[in-house]
Amino acid sequence: MNPEPKNIIELIKQGDKITLEKIYLENREGFINFARKYNVSEEDAIDIYQDAIIILRENAVNGRIDELQSNISTYLFAIGKYRIYQNFRVQSRTELTSDFNLVEENFDFDVNLYGQILTKEQQLLKKYYAELGDRCKSILNLFYYQGYSLDEIRDILNYSSKTVLKSQKSRCIKQLKDLINKHNGKY
Predict the structure, then answer these.
(1) pLDDT digits (tens, 9 = 90+) for 45-63
(2) Are 180 and 125 a contacting pair, CB within 8 Å?
(3) Staple partner for 45: which of 35, 94, 115, 146, CB 3.0–4.6 Å?
């Protein structure tokens, strides 16, 4: 019988290295196989997995996952998936910069990651998205750009419930719309 997530979290909080090692070993191979779906090398997958284990431990110790609704493996994989996407973004930016020897601020016109010129609406979204708070940016980025479900985002960002997260996401979208409308004469 598998222990409840709360019991596992409590053991991690208490510094039980055996529990953390067991979690590490039980999920390592599965995570490496999971990461292969995203064309991540085994070496990178191991690094990402180790980062995810560290984040899991830190979140447990700091009380951020006391009310975790999913099992530990699901939470660990959600962290890992988020880290994989972060690596893709960093690699994309690095490749773009090194290929063209430019940085985003040096463009005379606005382009997206695929080299396409952004529409006026996309430029407005990008501009006012930058003015949002970090929490809103994280939620909208995880949901719209990275494709995470609300359940996954709830676990990653440690929201108490999906309902609270949905409300926050709605407020963030409203805030973004208000910023765009206010600065573009539609107020």
Answers:
(1) 999 999 999 989 998 998 8
(2) yes
(3) 35
Is residue 82 a contact partner of residue 148, using CB atoms and an 8 Å limit? Answer: yes
Pair 23, 52: CB distance under 8 Å: no
Residue 106 DSSP symbol: G
CB 16 within 8 A of CB 24: no
pLDDT for res 145: 75
Q: Are 109 and 101 contacting, i.e. CB atoms less than 8 angstroms apart?
A: no
- pLDDT tens digits, residue range 67-124? 877 788 888 998 898 888 877 765 654 443 333 333 333 333 344 444 445 567 777 8
For residues 20 and 15, give the distance between their C-alpha atoms in angstroms, rounded to a whole number. Answer: 8
Query: Residue 14 and residue 16: Cα distance in Å, rounded?
Result: 6
Please give the model's pTM, rounded to 2 decimal places. Answer: 0.51
pLDDT of residue 25: 96
Q: How far is Cα 169 from Cα 164, in angstroms, rounded to an integer?
A: 9
- How far apart, in whole angstroms, are the C-alpha atoms of residue 79 and residue 87? 12
Q: Taking the CA atoms of the chain, what radius of gyration do you get in angstroms?
A: 19
Tokens 């003015």, residue?
Answer: 131
- Strands of the chain, DSSP E: none
Which backbone phi and psi does 115 adopt, to 5 degrees?
A: 80, 10
